[in-house]
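Researcher: Before we compare anything, I want clean individual predictions. No alignment, no superposition, just each chain on its own. First chain goes here; please echo the sequence and then give the structure tokens.
Model: Echoing the first chain and its structure:
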Amino acid sequence: MGVTIHNPTCTIPETSYKTHKIFLFCNYILLGAASSCIFLALSLRLLPSLVGTLFILLHIITIIGAVSGCTAASGGSNRWYAAHMISTVLTGIFQGSVSVLIFTTTGNFLGAMKSYVRDEDGAVILKLAGGLCVLMFCLEWVVLFLAFRIRYRAFLDGDRCGRDGIRTEEELKNWPWPFQV
């Protein structure tokens, strides 16, 4: 139950293994925080307004990015990796923007969500969601750094796990003349 990174045909150095573990742990926290924000938004109004729907959609995209990131950084293709990086940057920026909106204009944001609960209770619920948005904003950037480090480490390690990497001079001697530098 969960994503495993152990591959018996591939030898992963201990530092990369620990980086993978931290990466997966951060993604699991992202999943929990995003789903908690969805439930907090639904507690304000069961059938959300347009602002509430966009708020929930942002967290759904965050969940999809965290799930796809687990496979993209550890063994996916370059296209999946690039898509994961772009979606993580965009959701990170939007998470930060939403948290600033929640904390600076709580009343207006609550009014735009057309909440059914009392204003005081709604403000507390919204500030809880804003705190989770700040957490997700920070975790998105940690995940970006870790994903980059995992891919960079895989590039430096070479073909241990079936990826292209740096070639040794002995391997390059067998190449045609124009490619020997």
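Researcher: Okay. Second chain, same rules.
Model: Second chain and its structure:
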Amino acid sequence: MPLATTYTEAVVSSSSPVLYSFLIPTPLPYSTTPTNLFTRSSVTTTTTISSPSIAPSPTCAPSVSLSCTPPSTVVGTNGNPGSFLAFNISAPSVLNSFNITLSFRTATSNAVLLYSLGKVYPDYLVLELYQGKLVFSYQLGSGPARLQSSKLYNDNANHTVVLWRYHRNGTMTVDRQEVVTGTSPGTYTQLNLDGTLLFLGGIPLNVPAIGLVQSGAVPVSSFACFSTLSLNGGYYNLLSDRVASNGIEQCRVSYISAAMFNGSGYANMLPSYGVGVNFNLSISLKTKSCSGLLAYIASAAVSDFLALELYNGNARFLFDNGGGPVTVVYSPLNASELCNGQWHSLAVAKSGVSGTITVDNSRVTKATGLSSSYVSVNTMDPLYVGGVPKNTVLRSYVLSKQSFNGCIDRFQVTNGLGTPAEVSFSQAVQTVGVSLYSCGV
């Protein structure tokens, strides 16, 4: 394996672009002693308290060369896979306790905010957004602690989170209002992060991703703005103190995490998806085109399919369990209601032969097919959003033959009766004619 990976970026100044290259060491192999992480207990203790005392602010006594005065630097990360900033972190400064403060702003639901993983022992600390909630996790060697907020913090507003830990006990305080406490299981009390780095905004592609709530082979990096990062009272300068970075940029006015579809492409969101008996899907969209395919999946073996489309300003939800199509149509009084260039939400649900469309969380349309023993859309095929690949033959009941032209955000889907889970466009298996993070900026 290579000893190091070089990251190069262009930093634009008032005169001319300058290229900077940084070396970040390839992680050393991880020891299997003591007990490997994957065989350890997964018991988690998490407690939310309504009016606790907030963890005290530390006296400035940083163990790395940090400033006791908050710097004025801000930096953004572009959300592409492998985007990050890396900073030195002294192992003794987090061994028994730590106090970390981070200020950020984003609209992304799933993203890595902070990450550090030991090289000798697979101990870690993680701060991430999952379904819009903050999750603080740490592993001391005898099982993880995982503290999760009850509120959402992906609202494009500035937020400050303080992570405090002493031995097994941890506290996460957000905006000096919400406080979550937790305790790691077992008897180990030290966090061993020898010879590692603290990553902000994402994880390099050559660093193992362990301890995250979010799934996926490639962790979702942050499309976000960061303004404060401190450790035990000492502040990092987000530009001059970084030792490596990739995919950084100036902070943006808006961090709406929508994807732009150019009218001739598609996103393969889930390569092998089963719709089943019960199904829920929701999206937010913004367009001035009154026709376009929003979501589509069809069995390659039988007649079963499911589709969501705009057609001449109408929202149409169609599915076939095998006993004939069921069509649910929302027809607005104003044909341009859903294609007026403003954000709208569409939520569709299927339960057996019954289907519903909910528009902007208020207007509901329902339809029920003929009673049938066929109640499941039997698919194990790609779920497409915004269009389908060329030469795909759509079911004849689908009227919109063209791809969607506009913005789609907050794509959520589930089969069964569970809560819909958001799938980020950065995690799509394949995209054609789709630009990430290009709407609302």
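Researcher: What stands out in the second chain?
Model: The radius of gyration is 24 Å. Additionally, DSSP finds one helix and 31 strands in the chain.
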